[in-house]
């Protein structure tokens, strides 16, 4: 069952007497539209080394922003890091699977004439493969080549302006608190965290200030959440 976090319950009751209009939904790709196949912890360790990985992890309880950490490395070291990341992503592509409920949710959004966009920190090649393999198209679909990337609100604001809608008429859905929810919040959009395993209920996240507006454990919970909390009339 979809849960509404306490923060929004309060806001919704006092400041939003009518249901908000929803004109678009923007999805993260890896772990949201596709089943998680990339072992991010192993990837970070391979890039950073064990000691550095542990140090950075301790300093960043909500998660490591690997692209940010390598941004200021020397060109040679950075090149090697990008190759390691690309290697993990490539292995992920071979086992790519669509997330249960994703196709049905897209059908629901299409029926309601709600736009669908995509923002990923993965490369364009992976987005192209995703589009081809599953026959679902998202537009705009922004990949790592679009700068700045998530958690910067830039890509989401870009999509809103391409759609000619306001950020508060859009929902960002993703499985990463630090990237997807942060990007959505900073842009002023609604946010929905997909937490299939309940990992965000762990005490590690108790002191993390960032909270999504909604949290679901499956994409199949999203329709009822949208119908209950939003005005979906075209
Ligand atoms: Mg993800």
Automatic annotation (TrEMBL):
It comes from the Eukaryota. SUPFAM superfamilies: HAD-like. GO terms for cellular component: chloroplast. This is Haloacid dehalogenase-like hydrolase domain-containing protein.
């Amino acid at each position: 069952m979809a849960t509404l976090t306490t923060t929004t319950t309060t806001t919704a009751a006092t400041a939003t007497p009518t249901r908000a209009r929803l004109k678009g939904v923007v999805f993260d790709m890896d772990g949201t539209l596709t089943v998680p196949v990339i072992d991010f912890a192993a990837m970070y360790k391979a890039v950073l080394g064990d000691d550095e990985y542990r140090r950075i992890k301790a300093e960043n309880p909500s998660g490591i922003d690997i692209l940010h950490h390598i941004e200021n490395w020397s060109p040679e070291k950075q090149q090697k890091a990008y190759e390691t990341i690309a290697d993990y992503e490539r292995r992920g592509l071979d086992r790519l699977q669509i997330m249960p409920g994703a196709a049905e949710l897209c059908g629901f959004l299409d029926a309601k004439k709600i736009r669908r966009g995509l923002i990923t920190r993965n490369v364009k090649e992976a987005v192209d493969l995703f589009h081809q393999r599953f026959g679902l198209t998202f537009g705009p679909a922004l990949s790592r080549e679009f700068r700045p990337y998530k958690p910067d609100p830039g890509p989401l604001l870009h999509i809103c302006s391409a759609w000619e809608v306001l950020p508060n008429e859009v929902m960002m859905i993703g499985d990463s608190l630090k990237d997807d929810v942060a990007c959505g919040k900073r842009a002023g959009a609604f946010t929905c965290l997909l937490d299939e395993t309940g990992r965000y209920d762990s005490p590690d996240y108790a002191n993390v200030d960032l909270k999504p507006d909604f949290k679901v454990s499956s994409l199949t919970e999203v329709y009822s959440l949208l119908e209950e909390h939003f005005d979906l009339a075209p």
